[in-house]
Amino acid sequence: MQGFYAGNYYSDMYHVAIDDYVIDVLLPDLAGHDRSPAAFLVYLILWTHLFRLERRSISISLQSLSAQTGLSKSAVQAAIRLLRDRMLIRVTKDSPTSVPQYELIRHWLQRRVKKR
Question: b/e map of 23-37 (b: 16 or more CB within 10 Å)?
């Protein structure tokens, strides 16, 4: 369903709120400095799922992440490794063959609280 608003069209689609830090700092840092736009895409997909589900962690397969980002499975694995090493995500597994659980680590929120 679409409506008309001040000369522009808008839709009733759901929107995902993203912290300014993700766009202003993580995007240039991951895509530019680390030369891994794939890591940013994977982070964004995880963020979107967690936001929509209103959860702290999510189980999602590499195959599903690959399909949703348009990246190869090995590119997704490398992106996850980078995000984990940069301490931007926490990855846990119940067993070696189970689907991983991903949790975002939003360290900038902790810093903001400490500044006050």
Answer: eeebbeebeeebebe
CA geometry: angle at 115 spanning 27 and 56, to 5°? 55
Residue matched to tokens 């680590």 = 105
Return the CATH number at 68: 1.10.10.10
Q: What is the dihedral of CA 61, 107, 35, 18, to 10 degrees?
A: 70
In terms of residue numbers, what domain contains 40? 18-115
Q: In this predicted model, what pLDDT tens digit does every residue of 10-41 receive, in sequence order?
A: 566 778 899 999 999 999 999 998 899 999 99
As a whole number, mean pLDDT of residues 32-53 equals 94
> Is this prediction's pTM over 0.85?
no
80 falls within a domain: yes
User: For residue 75, is pLDDT > 80?
Assistant: yes
Location of structure tokens 């992106």: 79
Instruction: Report the number of distinct structural domains present in the chain.
Output: 1
First to last CA, the chain: 43
Between the CA atoms of 116, 44, 32 and 36, what dihedral angle is there, to the nearest 10 degrees? 130
